[in-house]
What we know:
The structure holds two protein chains of two kinds. Helices cover 15% and strands 47% of the residues of chain A. Chain A is of the alpha+beta class. In chain A, strand 16 and strand 17 form a beta hairpin. The longest helix of chain A is centred in the first third of the chain and has 34 residues, at 26-59. By secondary structure, chain B is an alpha/beta fold. Chain B is built from ten helices and eight strands. In chain B, the strands form two sheets. In chain B, strands 2-1-3-4 form a four-stranded parallel beta sheet, with helices on both faces. In chain B, strands 6-5-7-8 form a four-stranded parallel beta sheet. In chain B, helix 5 (142-159) runs antiparallel to helix 6 (164-188) and helix 8 (229-242) crosses helix 9 (256-265). The longest helix of chain B has 25 residues, at 164-188.
Amino acid sequence: MRSQKLIASIVIVIASHASYAQSATSTEIQKLQNEVAAMRSDYEARIGALEARLAAAEVAGESAAPIEPAPFVQPPLAKPGTTTSGNEFNPAASLILTGTYGQLSQNPENYQIGGFIPSNGDVGPPGRSFRLGESELTLSANIDPYFSGYFVGAFDGDNGTSVEEAYISHVGLIPGGTIRFGRVLSAFGYLNEIHAHAWDFVDAPLALQAFFGGQLKDDGLQARWVAPTALLIEVGVELGLGDQFPGMDRQKNGANLAMLFGHIGGDVGFSNSYRFGATLYRSRATQRTYDDLDALGMPVTNAFTGDTDMWGLDFVWKWAPDGNAVAHSLKLQAEYFHRNENGSLTFDLNGLQDATGNYDSDQNGWYAQAVYQFTPRWRVGARYDYLDSGTIDIGLVGSGALSAADFPILTDHDPSRTTAMIDFSPSEFSRLRLQYAWDQARFTNTDDQLLLQYIMSLGAHGAHKF
Amino acid sequence: MNRWCVLACVLLSVGVSTPALAALNVFACVPEWASLARELGGDKVSVYQASSPLQDPHRIEARPSLVAQMRRADLVICTGAELEAGWLPLLMQAAGNRNVQPGTPGYIAAAEYVDRLEIPTRLDRAAGDIHPGGNPHVQLDPRNIAKIAVVVSDRLAKIDPPNAAFYAARGEGFQTRWQAALSRWELEAQPLKGMRVVPYHKDSVYLINWLGMVEVMDIEPMPGIPPSAGYLAELVQRIQRDGADVITRSAYTDPKQPRWLAEHTHVPLVDLPYTVGGTPGAMDLFGLFDDIIARLKQARK
């Protein structure tokens, strides 16, 4: 419509000028010539002024800079003309290579966290002798103006592969909001969200091993919102499949895992910063099995069916003189986990003695650690782990149908571990670590663990979480 | 569950009821851009400086307070060229602020608007922590500041149209004063031409290039790799052989090794501010260059 009107008006203007010229007299022509002359002198004055300004700017140097970015000089990675658009759009890629040497006083095959239903996950130290750790491949890029993608695949030393994380992220649907969907490291507590290669010790705290089988990952949706305040106030929710211990894939519609979390964080002066966090978690399990021995020492498979409710508190404090962590820094970190499992426990599932009774447990665990960088590139650290098997009510034992000896793994026990480490980072991309631990997770026998570890990162410059 | 609902509602109402402050929130990654934003925005902007001059800009943590500030920012001014690669992407992800993502008018990567030096022809970490986009420490050439100021003024006007005329006038005033100062500095720094400099890190190349000085060698064997005792001993010999007028150290670097080297070579050590606030004299961008030139000239005597 608009263009039609425009054309029409142009036609009218041209037509009127044509008729005007035809009727023009010589005096009118003279008048026009005067006007044109006046206009010309006006323009000449303006151009002169502009030229003067330009000259002044040139004299002043290169200050009249272009508004557009200076053309980025592409490093000659490939010959011009041989790159394809597919290559140009390659995502940022990085690869983490890790490995350990272990000297353990106890056989890692019989590692056990006494007093807790086994998580059947990644529990215990890396094995004896030389072991290749996880090789993590990370790829990430913006997908389009709306989404970005992030993938971490892990190749473990036993030639198995797993998808550690694979999620799509969207920023700012509402101001302060971030949404992730796919597989995400759960935001339960502080350490769980951090990839193993960025941990300060070789292995996960006992609490993470006992309650999540190492690290909680979930397929689902995570939404976060940051409040518009000077103090960091962040709340978030996670909904997902919940197929990982203590949940399981129940082949049901809806979400089997639900989580709420919140963080508060800020600075104290230039040198200190902190973050507090709290988490609520719920998942369900149907016949989640584990292996144990009965009172006669015969192997049986037991199964838990019911709800798992957890809550946790986490705290991190970092100090560096004037905030400059190059030479000296201190990091204090602690987390507390509480778990209630309520439902039923089946003894000798599908076996001769198959019997089911109530099950109600209240268990908790915590760890606290400190890592101090005493000189550039060198850090020392200490960690203490403690788990309390708490109270476990087994209906079958209470009713007298079975004895406590039929559930040896649920015998009252407070596993603990003391760990010391020293590491050296030749550059931002490499780290060598020596760690010693006195591990009392088993019911008997302390495991003296000496571990040597390397963590190397190649490719894109990674960013590290607080 | 109900308790959590209440908490969420309270937080939401806090968020909604916080009045939109009149001033534009500017998040500056490093002190030089904070100072520039104050020069160009005056009282129309509220500037948050994410790091101090005593912090190594490569090694800043993605602290919770930075996430909170990034969340509220209307304009983010950083250096780019991967200087902030270790922390800025995390803030961008965590803060949920769509208006300041790279590629939007709310984000300025200052180094993109100037000609960068030392763009590597070979990208290999065996050469240390090199930046594919070239040396990112662009603020130490005042001619770069002038170029970046044009961009910042332009963006301020774009994001805050009601005050566009104010930013334009203020920008023009700054450019006039800056050009006058630039002429003065270039005159004052004449005696520094050809001065042989040994910086700790490759963070002074733009300064050295501008003033026509000579970077004899660095104390770091490679960018981001601290020198070993053996390498320092080797440096003493090399400095004595090649000759140097001054060893320089930026405010954020550990003084131990530069001091040791100065003692053993009898070459004067000069502490340079590197950025605004790095020395007591470098109170703003003008003071930064006044102080750098004064300190270098002092050592030249």
